[in-house]
Every structure is written in C-alpha cells, then in structure tokens.
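Supplementary Methods S3. Complex input for the WQD-bound model.
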Amino acid sequence: MRVLLTGGAGYIGSHTAVELINAGHTPVIADNYSNSCPEVLNRIKEITGVEVEAHEIDMCDAEKVDKLFATGAFDAVIHFAGLKAVGESVSIPVQYYRNNIDSTLVLLDAMTKYGVANLIFSSSATVYGNPERLPLTEDCATGGCTNPYGWTKYMIEQIIRDAAKANPNLSAVLLRYFNPVGAHASGRIGEDPSGIPNNLMPFISQVAVGRRTHLSIFGNDYNTPDGTGVRDYIHVVDLARGHVASLPYCASHKGSVEINLGTGTGYSVKEMAEAFARVNDIPVPYQYAPRRPGDIDACYADPVKAKELLGWEAQLGLEEMCRDTWNWQKNNPNGYKGAN
Ligand code: WQD
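Predicted complex, serialized as structure tokens:
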C-alpha cells in the first residue's frame, strides 16, 4: 500500500515508516519539521535501504495538502502530525486547538476529495482522563482531560467518528497509545525532544548520559504499590507494528473503531528508573519531588481488542525498552543535532 504519514518524521512516525517498509508498503512522509529533523530521512534509508518520498508541508495548509494528494493515489493515511507537549498546550491552548484540529479537517477534506478511504489516527490514552477503571477497555468513559493537548485528541476522535458516520466509504482506526518509549534497535532513530524533556524515559536517559544531574520522581504518595505513578510503557517498535497491523483491518471495514495500543502491564516510575540502571549498568540517581499537576495514580491498557481485531500484541519487554532507549541516547547524545 502507498501510505501517507503526516508527521512522519517524528518519533512514532519514523519508526512506523521503517516497519511499513519492512512489511512491503510504501510510506510517503509529509512533515513541517516543527518538532522533527530531516536527518531522520537519511537514518530511515540507512536502516531500510529505501529512500522515502518526503514533502515539507504544514498540514494546515489546504492548498499544499491538495497538491500533495494530487501527486498520486494514497491507499491510506496515518495521521501523526500534531503538537504534543502537555505543558505547552496549557500555555498556548489556542495554537494547540488550531493546529491539531485544522490539520485534521484539512486532511479529511482532501481524503474526501481524492477518494482516500482509510485513515489511522494517532490518539492517546489521555482521552480516558482519570480512568474509570483499570485496566482500561475501549468502552471506558472518555473526557475529563487535564490539558488542551488531551482535549485535541478527544475532539479529533469525535470529528473522525462523525466524518465516518456521514461518509460510508470512510474507514477509521483510532489508536489510543499508552506511553511510547524505546527506539529502533539500530540506535539510528529515536526520540529527540527539544529542551528539557517532559516525559519520563527521555529524562532518565539524559540523566544517564550526564545532561541532567538527577531524576525528580513526581510524587511518592500515589495509590500504587510503591507510591510512585504507574503507566503502561510500550516499545515504539511494537507501537509502529500496531499501525502496520491496522492497515488490513482498516481496509476491510467501514466506520470507525477505537483500539488501545498498550502492553497491559503497568510499571512504576521507581521501577522504570531502577530497571534502566540495572539493564544498562549505569547509575540513574533520583530524588522525590512534589506531584506534577494533572497526573493520575495509574493507567494501563486492556490490550485484548487489538489482539482480536488486528492480530497484534506487544512483543518487546521492559529490558528492550531500557536497552534501546540507552543505545539511541548514548550514540546520539544531542539527538539528530550534530548528527554523524
Ligand atoms: C510518566 C510518569 C510522571 C517525568 C504523557 C501525556 C500523554 C502522552 C504521553 C503524548 C508519571 C512521572 C515523569 C519526570 C516523573 N502523550 N515522571 N519525573 O504523563 O503518563 O503521559 O505523555 O504525547 O498524553 O500526558 O507520561 O512520561 O510524562 O510521565 O516522575 O521527570 O513519570 O509523574 O507518573 P504521562 P510521562
């Protein structure tokens, strides 16, 4: 299949491009590089031997998106493009709503105009807000998001559901990611956050490489076995394969469906820091700090629906998550900047 990846140069998009190529598909990347780097295209080529077609495009630019769709037929679109920093979304909410929602509307218009029927959307477990129950099944209540970023995912899901109801040709899979971590085993592509990382794993790896003195563990009085927050961390290569597995399902169904992509296992912050240190044999000093506003005690998936509908389940464990994160970080201490 010829598959358009909006935001395809980003962390999850780039890993998905590699797995699509491995599975015999042809990804086409559209990215404005606002939070990614064209160097990723060289790295994808190194890993796969394939030069990916890439277009520098802001997905909110309807004219350019139209031209992109006119370049040739897409069998499916995987829509990763979007602003994703939780804290920043609280400071500049209007930009978040405008960017994430406008780009989706532009995309849906272009898909309708050019008769592209299959859409896979990069949603998030953040749509569940404070979980109604654990593990989270797809029919758990959504809403109650604690930040504008989360609300954009919630609203876009609804927009896509409505579009699929109105257009009997449209098929949409809404993938709700839990906590993506890790990197490609080659160490050539990985997560490259700008500034001080908000997410746990990039922070831990920057402590390990010496860019930060210690990890602050936000809260040790949560209602969890060791008092620190519990999340469902999923290896980004597993996550990428979840997209590949969604393609045939999407192409053989109509309407929209929500699917969790998680492992079903929760680990605490303390367990993650200690596992990283153990697996990589490197110290990860940490200190307890106050809770971070908006954080919840625990969040992990029921992954059964993904297995039933897509035939997909996570294969990689905590060891690979820690090993591959470190392999990427130590070989690219400054991310793609100053790349070799
Ligand atoms: C995990 C745990 C923190 C950093 C967020 C978004 C979600 C998403 C993924 C994105 C929590 C603790 C973290 C640190 C810490 N989607 N922590 N010290 O909050 O589960 O999810 O990222 O694009 O929408 O909300 O992930 O990695 O930020 O935090 O103690 O320096 O690690 O409190 O318990 P989170 P996270």
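The mean pLDDT is 97. Residues 18 and 44 are 6 Å apart (CA to CA).
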